[in-house]
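Obj.: predict assembly geometry.
Materials: sequence records (below).
Method: joint structure prediction, all chains together.
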Amino acid sequence: MSANGTDPDPSGSTDVPTGPQRRAIWVPEPAELSDVELLLDGAFRPLRGFLSAADVESVRTRQQLGDDVPWPEPVMLTVPAEVAAAEEIELRDVEGAPVAVVRNDEPWCDGSGWHPAGPVVAAEEPVGVLRKIRPPACQVRAELPSREVLAVLPEAPLHHRELAQIRQLSAELDAQVLVLPRMAGPRPEALVQSVLAARPELPEGTTIIPVPLVRRADPKRDALLAAHVAAAYGATHLIADGPLEQAPLHVLEPPELVRDRADQWRPAAQVAPTERRPGLSDEGLRALLDSGSELPDWFTTPEIAEQQRRLHPPLTARGFTVLFTGLSGAGKSTLARALRDELSRHDHRAVTLLDGDVVRRTLCEGLGFSAEDRSRNVRRIGYVAAEVTRHGGAAICAPIAPYHADREAVGRMVRDAGGFVLVHVATPLGECERRDRKGLYRKARSGSLPEFTGVSAPYEVPDDADLALDTSELSQDEAVERVVALLRERGWVRSWTSV
Ligand SMILES: Nc1ncnc2c1ncn2[C@@H]1O[C@H](COP(=O)(O)OS(=O)(=O)O)[C@@H](OP(=O)(O)O)[C@H]1O
Ligand SMILES: Nc1ncnc2c1ncn2[C@@H]1O[C@H](COP(=O)(O)OP(=O)(O)O)[C@@H](O)[C@H]1O
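Observations (raw structure tokens):
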């Protein structure tokens, strides 16, 4: 069975779990699977599984488990009622491979759904590319030398300043260094590679173990959870940005280092203000990366810079999606085709056109025009556009996309992978109806075509469009030029002269 469900007999119930089923199968969200991996690794010690209702309540109100052990953040899984009714739940990854089994001792329910509770055990020998460099927490702990252990959990590449901070603190403490890169962003492997590339700059014998610790909404709890994970791996000290109450180890703020005239990073107290040179802000770094400029030697090493560029390629080397939305007859397909031609002539990217009509005959064959089917249609288009974007292409989509939530979902999927521009083709209904190229408005008005957008089905006008183009006022060329100008302004395409 590849999809979510129960075995052998799904109950179909949606509100309360019915009689017990022995085993259900469930594919958790990626963030939930990351928590499963941390549970299996022992990185959430002392947790061995998903929390019961009582433990969650206790963590939320007292930041302690039911038995008074400090714990900062609920670790929960959300499943449908029929899955929560099973005694055991086999968790699978998106490809359908078994990852773990939850012994579902005390399922419970709140406003957000049903939650299994009980210990989690590995389904089989854990696999995966990073598995070799990610041993369980107890093994890491056992292999660390018996002295202070200074941990850091970077979410971005470490450059000269951060590396100098780590070296300074580890020297002061005479500590072993433990770097636990958080594999939480869109390109976790590249982050891990960037940290591995920093190894020559880290104290000898530094241990580097990637951890799939997903960011929590509350920054304080997130930092505290990271501290618990660091402690589970054997850390005695942690470098963190601010003090942490109830942390299970010593928390140290990074020392203030400044760049001196010789481009060395030294304690601020040792460098007179007149001897200091400016560093690079986060925005400054982003601007250099976006434009593809070299990173200065005083900022990082060439090896780390190379990995940083993999993590954050220049805008012109990344993909983007333009989503045209608007009423039937507004001009979406016409503008999408013209934009495709313009980009194909002048830009290096492969262009993929995902036009409403064509998509409905292929990718979305069989879907109708109910709200649910439109939603499926638009989100499928978004999925493909995000893949095109991820691989450096330009995707141009032209569905009506009448619902705000679906457009927003497409934006989210795509922005994880590259650029996203929402263009509202805001041609008034009267003009679209006057054009009535396919005679559909006539049929809709006569009642022979039901659920027609703008007539008998809604169109939610975007209030978040990057551009609104009324083709009753703009020529096709002018409209396309506006889109190209916006892409240029945002750095996604270079200048060219249209002929
Ligand atoms: N009921 C109804 N409402 C709207 N449109 C209809 C309908 N029935 C058929 N058509 C034709 O289908 C095209 C719209 O498909 P989309 O995939 O773009 O629509 S949606 O985004 O899923 O809402 C649309 O194409 P465009 O005119 O290019 O927009 C119509 O030709
Ligand atoms: N400035 C303009 N931009 C785009 N289309 C225009 C413009 N002026 C007139 N049209 C006409 O409007 C119609 C729009 O149809 P189409 O592009 O299929 O719209 P949609 O894909 O939004 O349903 C075409 O016949 C096109 O020639």
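Conclusions so far: DSSP finds 16 helices and 20 strands in the chain.
To do: check interface contacts against the pulldown list.
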